[in-house]
Amino acid sequence: MGITVELVGEGSHEVDAETGQYSDLLSPFDVSKHEVSILVDGRPVPEDETIDNTVDHVRVIRLIKGG
After folding, report:
1. For the chain, which has fewer Cβ within 10 Å, the N-terminal or C-terminal residue?
2. Which domain holds residue 34?
């Protein structure tokens, strides 16, 4: 099953993910699961949650840290 993973503002990749967790979808990008939020249908999902087999697109938003 291919899932389109969009890192907002930085492009998208098609990821083959039949099983696994949402954090597994981050592999094509140079980001840590600790610095992003993963959204499915506009709602955040826990990165350690098992991928729902009906999902075909996720958006990943890089979190901004202030200092």
Report:
1. C
2. 2-62
The predicted-structure confidence for 54-63, as pLDDT tens digits, reads as follows 999 999 999 9
Residue-wise pLDDT for 23-57, tens only, equals: 999 999 999 999 999 999 999 999 999 999 899 99
pTM of the model: 0.87
Burial profile 33-60: b = 16 or more Cβ within 10 angstroms, e = fewer:
beebebbbeeeebebeeebeeebeebbb
CA–CA separation, 15 and 4 (whole Å): 6
Q: Quick one: DSSP state of residue 21?
A: B
